[in-house]
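Dear U.,

For the methods section draft, I wanted the exact inputs and outputs in one place so we can describe them consistently. I've listed the two proteins in the order they'll appear in the manuscript figures. Please don't edit the C-alpha cell lines directly; just add comments below if something needs changing.

First protein:
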Amino acid sequence: MKGCKKLLVSGLLVCLLFSGCGAQDTESTTAPATTVPATTTAPAATTTTTAPAPETTTQAATIVFGGEVYTVPEKSGDMLFTDDPSNKFIRAVTDKYGVDASLLACIYKNPASDSNFVWQFNGQKDADGKPVRTPDTLKYVYLLSADCTSIVRAGGFTGNDGVNIASGVLMMQTAKRLMIPEFQDQLNA
C-alpha cells in the first residue's frame, strides 16, 4: 500500500502541474497525432546574450476542493494522449478490471514516469453514435505506474480501489476540471 500512496501523490502532483504542457501521440497508433504547444516566454530584455533560450513559464494550476483552494506551480514535460486499445496502459486496465477498451482514453508522461492516467467514460453516445467523452461522462480515473504493476482506481465517493474517498474525489475533480478540458479536442476527434 505504501507504493500506492507514493504513486497517488506523484500522480496528483502531475495532474495539478501539467496544465499547458505539450500533448502529442508518439506511439504508433491508428489515432492521429495531435500537439498542444507549451507556453513559453523569452528572458527579460536586460539579458546580455544575443540568442537567449526560451524558458518555460511558471504559471499556477488551481483547483478548489472542499472549500480549499490548491495552487501548484506548473511543471514542464510532455503529456501524450491516445485512445488506442493496444496502448500498454489501456491494456493493463482492461486486463485488471475487464473494461471495454472503447470506453477508455489515456494520457501518459514522456519521459516515462509513474504518472499515467486512463480515463473511463460511461459509454454514452451522441445522435451520430459517437462516444461522448466529457467531464460529465467520466466514470473512473485509473493511475498507473510506468511498468503497469501498480494500478489504482478513483471513482469519486464510490468505486475507489487502492485510494480512500478523499483521494478518489480529488483525483476525479482534478481530471474533470484540469485534465479533460486540456484534451477535449483529442477526446472529440
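Second protein (the one for the lower panel):
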Amino acid sequence: MKPLEDIRVLSVTVFLAGPFLSMTLARFGAEVIKVEMPEVGDPIRNVGPFAGPEGIHPERRTDEDLSIRFLKRSEGVKSVTLNLKDPDGRQMFLEIARQSDVVIENLSPGSMKRLGLGYEEVAKVNPGIVYCSIAGYGQTGPYKDLPAHDHQIQAMSGIMDMNGATDGPPTRIGVFVGDLVTPLYAAYSILGALRHKEKTGEGQYLDASMIDTLATLMFMEPMEYVLRDGLPVRAGNDSRGSATGLYRLSDGDVIITVGTTTRLEALFKVIGGEELMEEPRFSTPTDRESNIDDLRVEIQKRFTRFNCADAISRLEAVGVPIARARTLPEAIEDTHFRDRGTLKPMRRHGSEEPIEAGIISGFPIEFSGGALPQLEGGAPLGHHNTEIYSSLLDLDGAKLNELKKRGVI
C-alpha cells in the first residue's frame, strides 16, 4: 500500500527532526528527494558509529561506510547534491519545486528565505506548494533566532521541570521528544494541507515549532491546577495523587496503576494490607492524597516479599494493571516488536543483507488494506543525482559533469 505514491517531496533537512519527517512521508510511498550540500551532505553523515563492508566501527573505514544515525533517519529517501548558494543551484531547486507537491526544511529560521528559496519564492513558481518549516521555536517570536537543539527545547519548554524525582533536579526525557514528535505533528498537518489543496487548489505555509509541540504534550495534564494548588510538579515514577507508581520487589521493579478505590482494595488484598483501608490516613481518596508518601511506604513494605512473576500473576488476576520495568536489552530481544514490524533489521542501500546488530524503527501502525512499502536503506551522498536531474530537469551526462566540476552538484 502506497497512499502517497503520487506525492513528490523536496527535503532540505539535517540532523533529526526534518529527516524523520522525510522518512515518515517516504514510508507512505511519497517520493522524497533530500537536497544536500556537495561533498558535505547532512552533518549527521559524519557522526559515528559507521556501518560498511568491514562491519560497524567508531570511525569510517571505507568510502562505502555510512553513519548508523543517518541510516536510522533516511530509509526510502533519495539523495541529491545541490549548492543552493549558487545561482544555477537555486534555479535548479526552484524547477524541481515547481514539479513537487511539498517542500520541507529544518534549517535555522530565515535561512531558506535568505537563499531566495523561501515559501514566497517557491509559491511564485508553484502556487499549490505545501511548504513546511520545522524550527526549535518556530519562525516568529522572541526566541526564533536562538540555537535550538532538543536539549535546549526541553529545558525552555518546562518539560524537564515535570520530569525526574520530586527532590531531584530537572531531568531530560531520554529520547529526543521534541525532535521526534514535532515531525509527526508536521506529517499530518502536511496531509491536511494536501487535502485542502485537493478541494481548493491552494497551497500554504506550515510553521512547526518544537517548543510549542512540547507545550501541547505537557498541558494534556491539568498542570495549571497543580501549579495553582502549590502541588509538586515533579512526580518521578509515581502519580501525583495516588499510589500508582514504581515498587521494588525481591528480583526487580514493577509499576502498577491503582488510581481507583476498587483497584487499591484489590491490591491491599493481594499484598496482605486489608487493614490499611480502615486507617484514617487512607480511608478516603482525599486522605490518601494527603498522606500519599506514607501509603507508598506501607505498600512497599508488603511488596518486598514478592518476586516479579508472583506479583504480576496475582495482580493481573484481580484486575490491577502491572508491568515489570524491563531493561533496554530485555525489551530489544522481545519478539513482539519484530513480529509486528516495529523494529526491523537495518540495511545498507542496495543490499538485502542486514547490518550486524543494527535496528531501524519501523512504523507502529498496521493497516488492514496492506503493508506499507519496503524501502531502501539510506542512500550514499548524491546517489540519485543522475536519476533526478535527468528525469526532472532533462540534463544529460555532459551537463551533469560540468555542474559537478563547478561545485553546483
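Candidate sentences for the figure legend, describing the second protein: The chain has two domains: 8-217+335-405, 245-328. Residues 8-217+335-405 form a domain with the Rossmann fold fold (CATH 3.40.50.10540).

Thanks,
Y.
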